[in-house]
């Protein structure tokens, strides 16, 4: 079955994310390796790296991804922002290699009004520069987006365009966010829509490129293009969409993490994971 978990805080130390994911009964983990709102965070210390490795030793089979900085926008019309974004992503690639985290989830960015193709070309150029300058095995997972404003990556063909034109396609894959694809207009709430969505993904990107999932219900309706996460089964997607995904044999070994709202005691993560697990094996 799929490996279910959550994005957890690294407050107090990167290694403490393992205590938090264990506390909610998670089997997959997403973290920020550094503050996602800073361009120049401090380097990892040898102690941090060792503590993180020690925490992972207790759950060595757990898939872990990093979520890249929200500041990074490789598609920006501003040269300074693109330069900062490339440097920030290069540092993230290096941090993940040091921590043995194999994948970084990254938003493709925004074209800032210059048009989709121009923005996509900038994204490809920026990614290629990062991969050329940082030669390691860490992959970038392009996250599906809701399509707000001038955002890139809300259509599967845009993600396929980036991968097909990159000089380093083997270092690129996709993270599918359920809230985002629904808000972008892909109706995964029932079998007909779910199957049509996966057929289109196969045609435009390739199912083999689908490496990770964010499991979030949507506060807003289909094709709203508004990114608002909701607890599982309490939004416009509903339980059926998650039941279909969790029982899709193509993804039975994939990591899937929550990004749903939560408080300090993490009870919401426990509740959402319980709801998701209740759907496994119920193929309808």
Tags for this model:
single chain; 284 residues; alpha/beta; two-stranded antiparallel ribbon; 9 helices
Amount of helix: 25-40%
Strand order within the widest beta sheet: 1-2-3-4-5-6-7-10
Kindly state the mean pLDDT as a whole number? 97
Proportion of residues in extended strands: 5-15%
Shape: globular
**Termini separation (Å)?**
16 Å
SS content category:
alpha/beta
Q: Which consecutive residue ranges, at least 5 long each, have pLDDT under 50?
A: none
Radius of gyration (Å): 18 Å
**How many β-strand runs?**
10
Write down the secondary-structure element order: EHEHEHEHEHEHHEEEHEH
Largest sheet: 8 strands, parallel, barrel
Our count of helices gives: 9
Give a nutshell description of this structure.
This protein is of the alpha/beta class. It contains nine helices and ten strands.
């Amino acid at each position: 079955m799929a490996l279910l978990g959550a994005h957890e805080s690294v407050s107090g130390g990167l290694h403490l994310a393992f205590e938090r994911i264990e506390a909610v009964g998670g089997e997959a983990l997403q973290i920020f390796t550094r503050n996602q709102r800073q361009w120049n965070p401090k380097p990892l210390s040898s102690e941090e790296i060792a503590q993180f490795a020690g925490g992972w030793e207790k759950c060595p089979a757990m898939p872990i991804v990093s979520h890249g900085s929200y500041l990074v926008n490789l598609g920006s019309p501003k040269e300074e922002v693109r330069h900062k974004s490339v440097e920030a992503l290069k540092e993230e690639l290096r941090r993940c290699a040091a921590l043995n985290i194999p994948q970084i989830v990254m938003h493709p960015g925004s074209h800032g009004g210059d048009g989709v193709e121009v923005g996509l070309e900038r994204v490809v150029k920026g990614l290629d520069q990062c991969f050329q300058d940082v030669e390691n095995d860490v992959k970038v997972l392009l996250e599906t987006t809701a399509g707000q404003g001038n955002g890139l990556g809300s259509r599967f063909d845009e993600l396929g365009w980036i991968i097909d034109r990159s000089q380093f396609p083997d270092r690129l894959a996709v993270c599918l966010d359920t809230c985002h694809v629904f808000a972008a207009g892909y109706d995964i709430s029932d079998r007909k829509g779910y199957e049509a969505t996966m057929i289109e993904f196969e045609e435009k990107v390739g199912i083999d490129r689908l490496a990770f999932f964010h499991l979030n219900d949507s506060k807003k309706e289909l094709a709203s293009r508004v990114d608002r996460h909701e607890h599982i089964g309490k939004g416009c997607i509903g339980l059926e969409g998650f039941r279909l995904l969790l029982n899709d044999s193509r993804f039975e070994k994939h990591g899937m993490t929550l990004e749903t709202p939560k408080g300090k005691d993490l009870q919401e993560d426990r509740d959402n994971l319980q709801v998701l697990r209740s759907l496994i094996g119920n193929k309808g």
